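Hey team,

Filing this mostly as a record. A colleague (T.K.) asked me to run one chain through the structure pipeline before their review meeting, and I want the input and output archived in the tracker in case anyone asks later how it was produced. No errors, nothing strange. Just documentation.

Input sequence:
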Amino acid sequence: MTDSQTTVARESAARGVGLHSGADVELRLRPAPAGTGVVFVRDDLPGSPEVRCHPAAVDRSGLQRRTELVGDDGARVITPEHFLAACMGLGLDNVRVHLTGAEIPIFDGSAQEFVALIERAGIVPLEAERRPLRLRQPVILTQDDREIIAMPARSMQLAFFAMLTHAGMHNQAAACEIGGEIGTRRFRELACARTFVFYEEIERLRAAGLIRGGSLDCAIVLRDGQPIGLNGSNQPGQYRLPNELACHKLLDLLGDLAVL
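Output structure:
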């Protein structure tokens, strides 16, 4: 990343289906001035209310297999993680995202469609410096058998360890430095990693009103430690990356950290 804030050079649009809602949604990127950050605009609602990407906008009660952001007037934006990860990974600071629905499209379950969307729009510098957040001391968050550790560093470096032996699989790990030419290239390599779900979870998630737009076209479904093949094939599906599961969780982590 450069020291200058950035925005998109031109408009760029894409259309897809929301993972949980199953609704068809268009999102359109538009340039924004320095200091704007990421602002979602719900064009499908009266007055086109805005939802700012900010920690105060996170709906803590809605954190069930997704992130939800809520504006001051109650307008919502659901599952922005993959898009926000693409913004962070490519160094996009300021953008207005116009939506025709509440949920960001899932596309193929990865961040690569959002990378393509941003690259079609182009990224240009603005005449304002970045003001990065700097961690002053270590932070540790634990819940059950999960743990996040953040430590002060000169650059942003992420590592994710996915413990999968309980599902009859090998554990996986993924890492990426955010920023700079090498970091951007590495991010593009892991942006293709898809979201995943265990076969045994599907009915429970559907009963909770989730994954109504889910399919094998937008997620890896794991059964007996293997991805299910497309079109009901008896042959196991294929991974895009040897550590695709860990890479995708790293994307999700990056997307949620982008809310900061």
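Quick notes for T.K.: The two ends are 17 Å apart (CA to CA). The first helix runs from residue 81 to 90.
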